[in-house]
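In the current project phase, we have settled on a layout for protein records. A sample record is reproduced below.
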Amino acid sequence: MTAVSPAADEFRLDHLKRLIVFAIVLALFYVGENYKLAYKLGGIGDERSATMVIETSGGGGSLRPLMFGLLGMLGIVCWMWRPARLRTNMHGWLPALIFAFIAYASLSILWAEDQAIVMRRVVTLVLTCFGAFGLVHRFSNRDFLVFCFLSGAILGLGSLASEIATGVFRPWTSDYRLYGLMHANTLGPMMAIFVLSAVALRRCSESHRGWYTLWIIIGLGLMILTKSRTAMIGLVAALWVWVVFGSTNRKRLAALCVLTLALALPAAVLLFGEQLGIMAKQTALMGREGNSPETLTGRIPLWDFLISNYLDVRPLFGYGFQGFWTPQHILRVSASQDWLILHAHSGYLNLVLELGYIGLGLFALVLVLATRRSYIYFRDTRDVTWLFMTSLLVWAIVASFFDSHLLTSSLRNFICMIAFAKLAMFDPRFVRVRQPAYA
């Protein structure tokens, strides 16, 4: 029998513990986000009553408060269980801005319309931050990539298997969208993160590149089946950043050519021919009949109504962190637009409604500085995880123009929080001296 060294045993045990942490985090969000094995059969999100949505998202009678409490406790345990000699190294404006934003969101309880809802949302935000802060003390850069990859693979393949098992998998029909375990607009962003993580793992792998290429194709296929256009637009922008800023000059030139074509083709459609315009419209809809690209699927009238009726009333401070969408506001806004509306369908407008222009300005600075810092770390270390974070944040920035991806109590937002915590707490040049595996 071959003897196993103590170092190998220690590595194997530590690797197992990390997988257990991955599983716990995924299970917490499975319960906290109310995933279902047959989501479609249980009623699609917009068919539920506004009051029920507020009760479940605010914590009334659901398991969400317990789940996020456990997530915060897990973060504290991971921080106490951090490797020896691993220390944080906060520097620059990014950590200060993150703390300032959290403090400002917490203070919004004072001027909120519904203080009970805002207080619950602030507690959830703080617990989620505890979870992210603690996990970065146990997740190396490679661990972070693996977590994103495994989470996306499990949710994507689980959703596909769920629809096949329940007999609702009909991709040949024009109105089909892949739901599976969750709403298609939730699954789409997770598939975007999955594809980005697979691209990063493929680049840093020496012997399994073909295997990761297959996973990239699978992830793209699942994303197309969700017909989540905002997630797809964000993914295109993120992949462009990946190619341009992470490749050689020759590949960068090729990427710029692709971008030029991507900008030139829509212009050609508008200038040359009605038939080309019809084809472009169908492409923009991604097979979703009954939607209007001219109004961004009803977003423009919705944004006009929200700005003129609510934002102009409280432009500086807003209605409290995640406190705008009360049952009264949901019912009034939905009645004005003739469809059930549970959020502003724009992360930035949602943020302005909640925290005003001050909150939007703080968070915009956090996004810009975090994206810049992640690229600087990649340039200095050539560690592709930092480039992955750059692409991830670019995806979130672009996709949030047309959907509410920012600061939601969701797995995709938690992944972005882990990236923020990594960038704010660990300078790779500092960590490499004390704990190389976490640089």
Notes: The mean pLDDT is 81.
